[in-house]
Structures are given as structure tokens and as C-alpha cells.
Amino acid sequence: MSLSILLNGAKGRMGHAIAAAAAEAGLVICAATDVGDNPAASIARCDAVIDFSFHAATRPMLELAVAHRKPIVIGTTGHSPADKAELLKLAAQVPCVWAGNYSVGVNLLFALTRRAAQVLGSDYDAEVVEMHHRFKKDAPSGTAERLLEIILAERKLERSALRHGRQGITGERTPTEVGIHALRGGDVIGDHTVMFAALGERVELTHKASDRGIFARGALRAAQWVVSQPPGVYDMQDVLGLK
Ligand code: NAD
Fold it and tell me: Is any ligand 1 atom within 6 A of the Cβ of residue 232?
């Protein structure tokens, strides 16, 4: 089905990547809006909304989508937990995909990590290593945080089990810790490896991003999927059938 999309945040890095990916996929951007524009003028003629803009822009965009009963894909990040809880209630009134990472590969990595943590018990030491470009201002990455949440949940461990890097005389590794290591350098868009190491073998699951287009293509895949769903909030695991 060829969709008509209202793209909010169209002048940003992701906006450009989504417009390029839409052109490749034969999807139509029927309205491209950014700060100062009025999406109310064009939403009626679009099938779905994609929002990769700014956290403060999510509420008005979502209210407009709800008023016009339009499905929406939200990629914008940076909402406070309280804000996000409010916005999710609003989002549930229309078909909505909301994900912190739209890469198909990363979402498969989440599912594979859960499966590996289920099969490989606490005998297998779990460590997460991520690498990003030298300009990144926070660590560990949001994607690494999600991988850690998955491992902690499967192993029934609290966040106090996390070991951020190691230095000095740490003593032997305990089976109830999960290591996390953040490397920074160059122009790396985002690499994540999850390791499960036992005596005699090691399993490594790695994802490497080399192009922001992966998020754009994932968001478009979410838009094509969400238009035929009933109202509710979904994530990329739903879109990809990984639940
Ligand atoms: P960017 O700063 O390059 O672009 C953001 C765009 O939004 C800008 O053009 C800006 O003018 C516009 N904008 C700001 N306020 C607006 C408003 N009130 N209404 C409409 N447009 C407004 O940022 P980016 O790299 O394109 O990322 C955009 C968002 O998407 C960020 O929140 C980022 O964290 C998120 N992101 C999510 C994923 C994912 O997979 N979920 C991937 C990449 C980026």
C-alpha cells in the first residue's frame, strides 16, 4: 500500500533521512512540517503521521493526530518519565508505534539477547560493550541500557548488579554481576555487543550501525504496519512480530 505521510521535524537529520527512504520505498510525504509550521492545515489529507522532532512538539502533534484519528509513529526522545506517561495515555486513543530505536537489526538484537539470556543461565557471564562517536555526550547509550534491562529482567537482578567498567583490584567476577563498557571515538554511529562467556565457550551478539537510514526505514516499516492496527500503543517488537 502506498501511504501518504505527514512528516514532523522534516528539516532535521532524521527528517531528511525519512524523506530519502520514503522516496526509495515509493511512499509519499504529503506534508513536511517543522518548527513554526501548522500541521493542522495538512493532516486531513495524510494516512499517517511520523514525528521525529523535539520532545516539546510531541504533545501538540499527538493531540492533532487523535483529533483526526490518524495513526502515528513517534521516534522523538527526551520526554521526562512523567510527560511520557501522560503522552502514552493520549497515544493509546489511536494506533501508535512508539520506540526509542527503530532499527530492525537492533530490535532483533533485543529479541536475541532475551532468548540467549533465557537459554544461557548465570553460568554464562553477561557483559555489554558499546561504541559511539567522539561527540556523544552520555554513556551508556540508550540502546545499551535497553540490552541491560533485558538481561537484568531475565536474570531477576536489580540495577545494583551493573558494573560500569572495571578498575583496580575488583576481586574475581561474581555470577550476579552484569558488565557494561562504553568506548568513544571517531565517527562510529553505534556498535553494540552482548557477550555471554562461560568456561569453554563464548557467545557474542553484535550489531553495527553504519547509516542513520536504518532508523528511517524502520520508522516507515512501522508506519505501514500501524495503519492497519486497532488503537493502542505498540513498539518495534510488535511491528516485527518478535513478541
Ligand atoms: P535534529 O535536531 O536534527 O532535528 C529535529 C527537527 O525537529 C529540527 O528540524 C527542528 O527544527 C524540529 N523541531 C523542533 N521543534 C519543533 C516543533 N515544535 N515542531 C516541529 N518541528 C520541530 O534531530 P534528529 O537527529 O533528526 O532527531 C530528532 C529526534 O528523533 C530526536 O528526539 C532524536 O533523539 C530522535 N531519534 C530517534 C531515533 C529512534 O530510532 N527512535 C533515531 C534517531 C533520532
Answer: no
